[in-house]
Amino acid sequence: MLDTVIDIVAGTFMIVGCLMSLAAGIGMLRFPDLLSRLHAATKPQVLGLFLLLAALGLELRSWAVLPVLLLAWLLQLLTAPVSAHMVGRAGYRTRHLKRETLIADELAAVVEAAEQREEAEHGRDGNRDRADFID
Amino acid sequence: MNIVLWICGITLSIAGALAMIRLAKGPSILERVIATDVLLLIVSAALCVDMTINKHTDNLIFVLLACLVGFVGSVTVSRFVTDRRNA
Predict the structure, then answer these.
(1) What is the pLDDT of residues A69-110, one digit of tens each?
(2) Is B45 exposed, middle or buried (0-12, 13-18, 19+ CB in 10 A)?
(3) How many CA atoms within 13 Å lie on the side-chain side of A32?
(4) Are residues A87 and A109 in the same domain?
């Protein structure tokens, strides 16, 4: 009886975890620009992996593998924000974004101030390209 | 459990195909980095499903390594992206 219940819970976790990957795939294709695709890509990274590792723990039912599962999830939890931040930052700097999709852009004022300070110190460099990159 | 395996296999295959379409189309290298990351996650999800269905822990080290490789890869590439058209 208990085995059946655990099997059903683990199976549900696995299907939902795989649906997270599918959501990421659909989001990668459907969303308009880099930052929204980044948002779609983080769904399987944290919740999807957690559900799949939880299903694995439920099926194995051994305390020995629990630390390894926890370590895999914690590593993902620590590294996912860092890599997403780096990609988002590089995307903003190379202007791979659609500004009309943004609700707030708090970085714009900072970047503008830094550019003005640089111009005041070194003089204007003529070849600055301000056009946004649109696919 | 057999039907769960089928559902997961079909779902992950479609997800992998969609990620590969974005990997081929992606207008910039940053899109390709995200698509590669998603593809790596789909592979590690498939490894997790295999371990759960067949009740073994052989692939656990690969799931752990996939996290680290994905992190190092995307951070390295986005660190060296420069402001160029079609970069």
Answers:
(1) 999 999 999 998 999 889 888 888 787 777 777 888 888 888
(2) buried
(3) 8
(4) no
Assess whether A84 and A19 both reside in one domain. Answer: yes
Average pLDDT, chain A: 85
Number of domain units in chain A = 2
Instruction: Indicate the pTM of the whole model.
Output: 0.85
Would you give the DSSP letter of residue A46? I
ipTM above 0.90, yes or no: no
Measured between CA atoms, how close is B50 to chain A, in angstroms? 9
Segment (H or E) for A22: helix A2-30
Domain housing A79: 2-97
Residues A27, A37 contacting (CB under 8 angstroms):
yes
Residues in A 68-97 with any Cβ partner in B closer than 8 A: 68-69, 71-72, 75-76, 79-80, 82-83, 86-87, 89-91, 93-96
Q: What is the pLDDT of residue A122?
A: 78
Of A28, A56, A86, the CB nearest to B79: A86
Domains of chain B from N-terminus onward: 2-86 (1.10.287)
Residues A54 and A108 in one domain: no
In this predicted structure, which of A3-12, A48-57, A117-126, B23-32 has the lowest mean pLDDT?
Answer: A117-126
